[in-house]
Design a protein that fits this description.
Helices cover 76% and strands 0% of the residues. By secondary structure, it is mainly alpha-helical.
Length: 281
């Protein structure tokens, strides 16, 4: 009697054949098995001699995937923002609401949806195109600075901060630790509360102009917000690095690109507001 475990195993178990027990078929089966084993050995040898599979071959996340998708989304964002600036800047509230809703939907989805992420990018382009001209006009009244000058300065400052944050992360001078993440979360919650209070006070007429975001306090808060956004970029880089090292599926490159776009939009808005405050009374 054979071992029932081995007998029922797909690897060690005997193939389930008919009830015939003729000697010839048994030897024929053994010969076939020997041929199969030889073929399997040849296949294994070919596998071992073949070049190692890359992350692209295994459909795993790569840095190239993230770079390509992030670059594509940013290009789409710029095109939509430029079109909105020139043709329909008054649509920015619609873009703001749509971007907020789509941002929350994408943030809570377990699996990324490229269509929803692209839709979010388009909505943010509409929002940024309109809000950029609104901020620029608020500053032009007193300084006479061209509208496009402030926007270009904000774009350059955003890209420079992105490069600086990436350099600091790659150099290891700034490491993402649990303490760092905890500090960032607390600071972001505090900043969010401050911003909401300021919006309510300005919209209800209690404060005018920039509200608590004007003057020296406004500049200090703006610089603090820029620091928070830069720290968020470093956390994003760390998350992407861990995703690549852990071999997560390639589809999550969309999630990484979405996260980077969200942080870059926030950083751009902070620079834009800061420059508008500098250039206004």
């Amino acid at each position: 009697m054979t071992n029932p475990v081995l007998r029922n195993s797909d690897v060690f178990g005997e193939p389930r054949r008919g009830r015939g027990t003729a000697t010839a078929p048994q030897y024929g089966h053994m010969a076939g098995t020997t041929g199969t084993q030889a073929a399997d050995a040849a296949s294994l040898e070919n596998m071992y001699s073949a070049p190692a599979a890359t992350t692209a071959d295994t459909k795993r996340l790569t840095y190239d995937d993230v770079i390509i998708k992030t670059g594509g989304l940013l290009a789409l964002l710029v095109v939509v923002a430029a079109a909105t600036w020139n043709f329909a800047p008054q649509l920015w509230p619609i873009g703001m609401i749509a971007g907020l809703v789509l941002g929350l939907v994408n943030a809570f989805k377990r699996n990324p949806s490229p269509a929803l992420i692209v839709a979010y990018t388009v909505a943010q382009g509409v929002f940024l195109g309109g809000i950029s001209i609104a901020f620029a006009q608020m500053a032009v009244g007193s300084s006479g600075t061209p509208l496009t000058s402030i926007v270009l300065q904000a774009i350059v400052a955003t890209m420079a901060t992105f490069v600086a944050a990436l350099f600091l992360f790659k150099s290891g001078k700034v490491r993402v630790t649990p303490k760092f993440t905890r500090w960032l979360l607390i600071a972001m919650v505090g900043y969010l509360v401050f911003s909401l209070v300021n919006v309510v006070l300005t919209w209800t007429g209690v404060l005018d102009g920039w509200g608590m975001r004007g003057g020296v306090l406004g500049i200090a808060v703006g610089l603090f917000a820029v620091g928070l956004a830069a720290a968020s970029l470093i956390v994003d880089f760390d998350a992407i690095k861990r995703g690549v090292e852990q071999g997560v599926p390639a589809k999550f490159a969309w999630t990484a690109a979405f996260g980077l776009v969200v942080t870059l939009v926030w950083l751009y808005l902070e620079f834009l507001r800061l420059l508008a405050i500098f250039n206004s009374d």
